């Protein structure tokens, strides 16, 4: 689901995205699919595992007065190939249809038309 969230952000041109932004989109995906979500730290761990496989890549920056290291994520694979891979996962059957997003998170709200070839963001 973390990868799907990153794909959605990529389709909107919002990558590289901070872990918190990926996590907010991830939680929206889980809500839409009616699945349980995991913690932000675990999502970051999954994204790091995908980085080891060269599916994603990240850069880190220090946050200055906020302190700590901030991770910025983006896809490291072909967008369409990633969509085809996600489409082949049985657990995600039904995701590639019309998905309504009604959130208060800026930049995530809207309607997304997903299919195995691309994701089209339709802003509301």
UniProtKB/TrEMBL annotation:
Keywords attached to this entry: ATP-binding, DNA replication, Nucleotide-binding
GO molecular function: ATP binding
All residue ranges annotated as the Cdc6 C-terminal domain in the record: 3-86
InterPro entries in UniProt: Cdc6_C (IPR015163), WH-like_DNA-bd_sf (IPR036388), WH_DNA-bd_sf (IPR036390)
Domain of life (superkingdom): Archaea
One Pfam family hit: WHD_Cdc6
Segments passing through the bilayer: none
One GO term (biological process): DNA replication
UniProt entry tagged with the keyword ATP-binding: yes
UniProt key word Nucleotide-binding: yes
Annotated family: Belongs to the CDC6/cdc18 family.
Protein name (Swiss-Prot/TrEMBL): Cdc6 C-terminal domain-containing protein
Organism (species): Halonotius pteroides
């Amino acid at each position: 689901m973390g990868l799907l969230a990153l794909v959605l952000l990529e389709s909107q041109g919002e990558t590289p995205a901070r872990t918190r932004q990926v996590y907010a989109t991830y939680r929206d995906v889980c809500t839409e699919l009616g699945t349980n979500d995991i913690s932000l730290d675990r999502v970051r761990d999954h994204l790091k595992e995908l980085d080891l496989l060269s599916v994603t890549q990240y850069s880190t920056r220090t946050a200055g007065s906020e302190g700590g290291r901030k991770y910025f994520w983006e896809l490291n694979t072909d967008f369409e190939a990633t969509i085809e891979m996600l489409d082949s996962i049985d657990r995600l059957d039904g995701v590639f249809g019309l998905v309504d997003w009604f959130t208060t998170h800026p930049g995530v709200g809207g309607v997304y038309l997903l299919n195995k070839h691309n994701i089209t963001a339709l802003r509301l």
